Amino acid sequence: MKSIVTLFLIGLLIGSGMTLPLLAESAAQPATQESQYREVAQQIKLFGDIYKEVNRRYVDEISQTDFIKAGIEGMLETLDPYTVYFEPDNTEQLEEITKGKYGGVGIEIGLRGKNRELTVISPIEDTPAARKGIRTGDVIIAVGGKSTAGFSTQDATKLIRGEAGTEVTLTIHRPGFDKPLEYTLNREQIRIHDVSYSGMIDKDIAYIRLAHFSSLAGEELDSALSMLLAQKPKGMILDLRSNPGGLLPAAIAVAQQFLKPGDVVVSTKGRAAGSDRTFQARGNPRAPDVPLVVLVNGGSASASEIVAGALQDLDRAVVIGTQSFGKGLVQSVVDLSEGAVLKITTARYYTPSGRLIQRDRAKNGQPLGPEDEEEGLMAEDGELIQKEAKAKPDSTIEIFATRSGRKVFGGGGISPDIEVEQPLLDPIEVEMFRRDLFFTFMGEWLIEHGRPDTTNVTIEMLAEFDRFVDSSNFEPPIPGADQLRALRQIGEHDSLNQTFFTQLEALQKTLAAQVDHQKPELREFIRQSLDREMASALGGREWRTRSTFDEDVQLQEAIRVLRDKNSYAGLLEPASAGAKKRN
């Protein structure tokens, strides 16, 4: 299959009129152009012979379309995960990433509740869904008359999105209503905002959360900076956590707002002609001098790492958080025939000090990041709330120097100047999120009580939540549950006597008694989670973001550093070598 796949690539690229130079450069040993062309011709003939014989002789009739598609997919699987073929009817995702917009109705959806129903997490402000009255907690039971039972969010997205100006009908079950509600919505171009939040923290610290790097990122950042700098902040936080990246020009546009003209932002190195380039800051920066902290984590990748790496290498910002993802590969988009698109890796990114951003997965392990959400628990707004994988240390990591001489480390990804781990959830907290207890409770509570005058979580609300949990048959995880299950299986397999199982039951009850529902840490977690859900229901993403500030240990460390001028300055001095650990 690999030979067929490789040969098909040769035929595909030659058919697009762009292959021969690329193939010539990829030869394992130096060769003349004539011999390379001869090799290509031989391989194409072999591919044609194999394809012809399979088509003629294979025991079953084959679908030529599926056969070729399998060849493309198999071929690209031998490369990195970022080289992707998009069929003509499946380029919307690429356009969403690059242009920051899509045709749709403006809702965030997810699978919620014990039945994993397709649920509206939040309508986006000033979109068809918001204007027609779609609400958080609405369950979408049909799209265009087609039941959503068993749907994934991807299945629903394909039906809900479409060309601007067309219509789509959503059938909604709304808690508190006996009959389904139907909404016919006109699709529009929905803008995905790169700056998902900006504002002041306690009047002296400016905060900007950058969620994406589409072509609009520089423009949106410029607008946010204009508003925030007018309030004369003493420091600024640029939050790039869980930002999976995007466009290189957008990363340069963001970084140069904090740098001086002529400063190197990033360099690229590749095999093809024109791949080796150096990109510098240009224009008039809005914030070249304001004290700056950049927040990163394992979900910060690509363009996020370009920005964080440049600001760190040029001693322009203190980086706080955890090791970034390490995705430093440059992709170019190539238009193929019939509207198909190939997104292909063509170079690697390097920071101003010369650090390679791309992580060697085999060497350092695979940190949790944008392509690995299934390895961690995701909150309803897509933020990582439980991380289960870390990069492994490497004794051979190279040491580089910032502009002032500070030590920074290679090996892929951006290492923070101050490492601050977000506390992990314990098993009970994880299970509460998995069961969507907070989201479901808040939806029912708002129906019963109406919109409150304050977002404060009261003692009465906590008591109601306890009753709700009891009525939902929630069973908190018991310490050692997996081991107990294994012992039970051994007993059943070996037909042990009843005494063994009686003792096992007693042990299970003893362990269950250790689960303290009223321990202060759990009560505070419940209060914070309810506060976040109420803020989200009443004020959308903006209120939800603000509701997390007090409990966000990485953000609080950034505020502490910015308010301590000596600490901030000391972190950027040459003697500062490597990350400091804060828990």
Description:
With 583 residues, the chain is of the alpha+beta class. The chain has four domains: 2-78, no CATH class; 101-191, PDZ domain (Pdz3 Domain); 195-331 and 347-422 and 578-582, 2-enoyl-CoA Hydratase, Chain A, domain 1, CATH 3.90.226; 427-555, no CATH class. The protein has 19 helices and 24 strands. The strands form seven sheets. Strands 10-11-12-15-16-23-24 form a seven-stranded mixed beta sheet, with helices on both faces. Strands 1, 13, 14, 17 and 18 form a five-stranded antiparallel beta sheet that branches.
Subunit organisation of the chains: single chain
CATH names the topology of the largest domain as 2-enoyl-CoA Hydratase, Chain A, domain 1
CATH architecture of the largest domain: Alpha-Beta Complex
Strand order of the largest sheet: 10-11-12-15-16-23-24
Low-confidence stretches: 1-30, 364-393
* Highest CATH level, the class of the largest domain: Alpha Beta
C-alpha Rg (nearest Å): 27 Å
Structural class, please? alpha+beta
Share of β-strand residues: 15-25%
Specify the overall morphology.
globular
C-alpha termini separation: 51 Å
Task: State the domain count.
Answer: 4
Helical region count? Answer: 19
| Mean pLDDT over the residues | 80
Percent of residues in helices: 25-40%
Strand count, sense and barrel status of the largest sheet are: 7 strands, mixed
Compute the number of strand runs. 24
The fourth-level CATH homologous superfamily of the largest domain is 2-enoyl-CoA Hydratase, Chain A, domain 1
